[in-house]
Amino acid sequence: MKPKVTMIAWNQNDNYVVTAVNNHLLKVWNSCTGQLLHDLVGHADEVFVLETHPFDSRIMLSAGHDGNIFIWDITKGTKTKHYFNMIEGQGHGAVFDCKFSPDGQHFACTDSHGHLLIFGFGCSRPYEKIPDQMFFHTDYRPLIRDSNNYVLDEQTQQAPHLMPPPFLVDVDGNPHPTKHQRLVPGRENCADEHLIPQLGYVATSDGEVVEQVIGQQTVDQDEQGLEPSILDDMIRQLQLQQDQRTGADQESASSGPQNGEGTPRRG
């Protein structure tokens, strides 16, 4: 197999360069002379994460598809710490990304199973208050393209980035409390009544009645004759109001002065 470099990173003071090779080795080089200083052995699969410590020039973190996370002392070529991302009943989870905190006391990783892994010092109680499962209620809703090839939300016929902020729900679509809804950008200062999505009961094709966040219904449900989404109606109304305001602004701007006396005065 011909060796190929999959990732490269400089250390904090740029004295060393670390490269990840597809033979699962990490190589530490002198950045000025190009001399190979160390081979770091430990990974069993390709490495696509190399992160330098924010202020300690000796420390480099690596993580890969083998689920291993290593903290290295690259000046000595030794392991300082090792973690393995084992997921019960599913084997290991490949680590896709990692970042240090600005103070260098913590680092966070994301894996192939959608987990956020947080490592560091101190108590974990603040993190235990956050729900294990957080999804937007609009996740996995189908998209379409219009005649101009622009992407639109299939239900509301609006561009996704113009839609109101979504609600946070668990994997089954149940909404989280209002304190968690405020974590969504755009909902920080909303009134409490605007942070509680309406729950509805809908009948499936086999007659089973299920509870869900209104607004998660799909076009398939509409075709089955289920009740329309109240939340989507609210979104459409908000978008309509925004379009009307935009149209009024454009109309007033295009009308301009009629008497030729220059720029119209503000009211």
From TrEMBL:
GO biological process entries: cytoskeleton organization; regulation of cell shape; regulation of transcription by RNA polymerase II
Domain of life: Eukaryota
Keyword field: Repeat, WD repeat
Pfam name, any one: WD40
WD repeats: 1-39, 40-82
InterPro entries to which the protein is assigned, alphabetical: Bromo_WD_repeat, WD40/YVTN_repeat-like_dom_sf, WD40_repeat_CS, WD40_repeat_dom_sf, WD40_rpt
Skewed-composition ranges (Polar residues): 239-261
Family matches, as PROSITE patterns: WD_REPEATS_1, WD_REPEATS_2, WD_REPEATS_REGION
GO cellular component: nucleus
Region ranges (Disordered): 239-267
Gene3D superfamilies reported for this sequence: YVTN repeat-like/Quinoprotein amine dehydrogenase
Name listed for the protein in its UniProt record: BRWD1 protein
Protein's organism: Uria aalge
Gene, per the UniProt record: Brwd1_0
